[in-house]
Amino acid sequence: MDLWGNEDAWDRQTKQEDTRKKTLTSLMTYEELENCFYECNACHLRTEGGHGPVLSSGSEKSPLMIVGEGPGGVEDEKGLPLVGPSGKLLDKALWSIGITRDRVYVTNIVKCRPRNNRTPTMQEANVCAGRWLIREIQIIKPKVILALGKPALRFFLGRDVGIIRSRGQWISWRNIPIMPTFHPAYLLRLEGKSLVDAKWQVYYDMKAAKECAMKAAPDWNWKSIEPVDLLDTYADRIAMRKEKNKLMCD
Ligand code: SF4
């Protein structure tokens, strides 16, 4: 309040922020979260040139949550995480351990596409994940999280560490076991023996994550009969995104 008892800009801003926090923490279901998610413009990533936030894919009941880095070009266009070249590789890796994409919950640390697919900074990751990913985790209640790549690892660890040294070693975040492994985009940049070695490492990391989740959720069905085409499954969401992109360009 100022000297005359009037509400000043600082008071107003503080009240708005308090209301925002209360609104977010009161989100109880995935649908409630989704309803306010797409309007988010809480950080500068929203205006870096992408088409808006990308939330998740897969089952909200899955005991296994996979957390990637952020949307790339294809993901930004379609509005789905990990459906571009990295996503195709992820699908193959999951299939090799008996999982189809519809049976896991997949999301990202940052929801808006960083320009030119640059790696999000720790601060950007903390802002976005602090606002959305933490709510997703509270709602989905995964038994195990598979963290793909360095941004996801350092968010859960709370400090800057290298993924090469840390992959394959369990960490714990709010009592949830986290298995860090390489992001598929990293594998796509490798070749020869390095690629073969890294693929095996990812295979064993994912297998360990699945086995841990299976212990906690022994009745979960991990595999649909056929590999799942997410672009088919989410055709409506993709069409809506396309329409929105078109309106933005007109
Ligand atoms: S990156 Fe996250 S916090 Fe920033 S605008 Fe997008 S959804 Fe909101």
TrEMBL record:
InterPro entries registered for this protein in UniProt: UDG_Type-4/5, Ura-DNA_glyco_family4, Uracil-DNA_glycosylase-like, Uracil-DNA_glycosylase-like_sf
Major enzyme class: hydrolase
Keywords per UniProt: 4Fe-4S, DNA damage, DNA repair, Hydrolase, Iron, Iron-sulfur, Metal-binding
Superkingdom of source: Bacteria
Keyword Iron: yes
Family per record: Belongs to the uracil-DNA glycosylase (UDG) superfamily. Type 4 (UDGa) family.
PANTHER family per the UniProt record, alphabetical: TYPE-4 URACIL-DNA GLYCOSYLASE (PTHR33693:SF1), TYPE-5 URACIL-DNA GLYCOSYLASE (PTHR33693)
Protein name: Type-4 uracil-DNA glycosylase
